[in-house]
């Protein structure tokens, strides 16, 4: 298959591993966090998860900076 720019949720972004711009598959996921400290509070936070189509490196970034 030829490489195209037509991937629906593909984004060309810099990859830390490849050290160049590569195609990334981007999705938003709700990740359950256990609260730190004495408050046993569980909150689901939206993370922007991306995976490099070239090397498979994944990273996630929290979307709201609480
Ligand atoms: Zn990469």
TrEMBL record:
Pfam families found in the cross-reference section: DUF7835
Domain DUF7835: 1-66
InterPro entries for the chain: DUF7835
Protein name as it appears in the record: DUF7835 domain-containing protein
Domain of life: Archaea
């Amino acid at each position: 298959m030829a490489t195209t720019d037509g991937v629906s949720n593909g984004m060309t972004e810099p990859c830390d591993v490849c050290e160049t711009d590569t195609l990334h598959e981007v999705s938003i996921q709700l990740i359950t966090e256990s609260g730190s400290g004495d408050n046993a509070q569980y909150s689901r936070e939206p993370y922007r998860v991306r995976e490099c189509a070239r090397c498979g490196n994944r990273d996630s970034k929290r979307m709201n900076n609480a």
